[in-house]
Amino acid sequence: MWKRLKAAAIGSIVVMMATTTACGRVNTSPNKAVPTQNPTAQSGTGNMQTQSLSQPGQRTTLGNDDAVVPIKVINNVNYVAARELIQTLKFQSNWDESNQKLLIGDNDANFEVTMNSTKAMKDGSEIRVGQPFIKEGNSAYLPVTALADLFQEDMSYEVQNGQLLIHAAPVAPIEHEDDIDPRTNTAELDFSDDPTDPFKGEGTGVKPASMPQDEGDLEVWSSTNHEEAIPVLKNIDINAMINKGKQYLGVKYLFGTGPYPQTGKFDCSTFTQYVFGKYGVKLPRLARQQAAQGQLVSRKSLRKGDLMFFYVPGRFKTNKTVGHVGIYIGNMQMLHSSPAPKNGVQISNIDKPYWKSTFLRARRIAY
């Protein structure tokens, strides 16, 4: 199946392959909304009405920076073109021709929608929506009523006057790895190594004779997103695992790719899944699923082998959901698969404003 995946620009359905990255680059800008002339619009769904995901049942003030996605009525149902929504949210996409599925997400495919069906996958779980996803000509369309089911955590929007209005983030995020932002010049956002890390230093892949007993820097994460911290801590040789991961430096990145042995490529979460799998640690497929594994670690107590999770910034996103994952390898460096700044498996310096500001959490999977 995966060999038949085609980029949206050349597949049988036209969808926007937004060039978003771990650094959030995109080549095009969405349309800007005209401020509403009807500030008392009623709450609800559909044309001429308002729906807000951030504050259900309440009117959200529109601003000049809100993005507009036109609504198209097909068979008396409100739809939006997948291409325009993907472009606005700076998501990536891929078209699975054999299964008639559209894959959508940040640096891995968090969402799968099946054409001419109400079936979808969100963060690895199947959901059903009220109206079918369809294709008309060479374009894919998503029913407006399904947007809350799919993207409630990723965007805040309103439906008004035959348009989908997507609200801009209150503060413009840093979108490129080398951007400088004075807001990140604070010690609170600095990363630090755990001085008691038994694998601290370059290492030779040889496990220390003794392991520290004090795990006081660990805490169980109490989630507000209906996720559970699943303890999968396993005693493995972290330095050997990191050295194994470095053997794949330069392997190309491919959004929504299948298993590495079949495709020869990684996205961010298949890379971490594959490397940990070599040492007997079974991680789920997606970064958002992996973010519920193991134990939560402070950004001030990082150890080699910890998984680091980030959001992929966008002007019209909530910038609160996991979109990227990498492996911390010590000395402020992370091993990960990303489309940028290089394409493929690479090592990045996380002691930069971009990584400091987009960091969400770290999880200790092994020790």
Describe the structure in your own words.
With 367 residues, this protein is an alpha+beta fold. The chain has 2 domains: 2-166, 2-Layer Sandwich (Copper Amine Oxidase, Chain A, domain 1), CATH 3.30.457; 182-364, endopeptidase fold (from Nostoc punctiforme) (Alpha-Beta Complex). It is built from 7 helices and 18 strands. It has helices at residues 82-89, 147-151, 238-246, 260-263, 268-277, 287-290, 353-358, and strands at 5-6, 67-74, 77-81, 92-96, 101-105, 111-114, 117-122, 125-136, 139-143, 157-160, 163-166, 218-219, 295-297, 307-310, 324-330, 333-338, 344-349, 359-364. Strands 1-4-5-6-7-8-9-3-2-11-10 form an 11-stranded antiparallel sheet. Strands 12-13-18-14-15-16-17 form a 7-stranded antiparallel sheet. It is globular, with a radius of gyration of 21 Å. Mean pLDDT is 79; it is low at 1-62 and 204-231.
**Tally of domains:** 2
Q: Percentage of helical residues?
A: 10-25%
Which structural class is indicated by helix and strand composition? alpha+beta
N→C terminal distance: 36 Å
**Care to count the β-strands?**
18
Q: Rg, please?
A: 21 Å
Enter the CATH topology name of the largest domain. endopeptidase fold (from Nostoc punctiforme)
Oligomeric state, counting identical vs distinct chains: single chain
Low-confidence stretches: 1-62, 204-231
CATH class wording of the largest domain: Alpha Beta
**SS field, number of helical segments:** 7
Any idea what the CATH architecture of the largest domain is? Alpha-Beta Complex
Biggest beta sheet summary: 11 strands, antiparallel
Q: What does the overall shape look like?
A: globular
Q: In what order do the strands lie side by side in the largest sheet?
A: 1-4-5-6-7-8-9-3-2-11-10
Task: Calculate the mean pLDDT score and round it.
Answer: 79
Query: Percent of residues in beta strands?
Result: 25-35%
Order of helices and strands: EEEHEEEEEEHEEEHHHHEEEEEHE
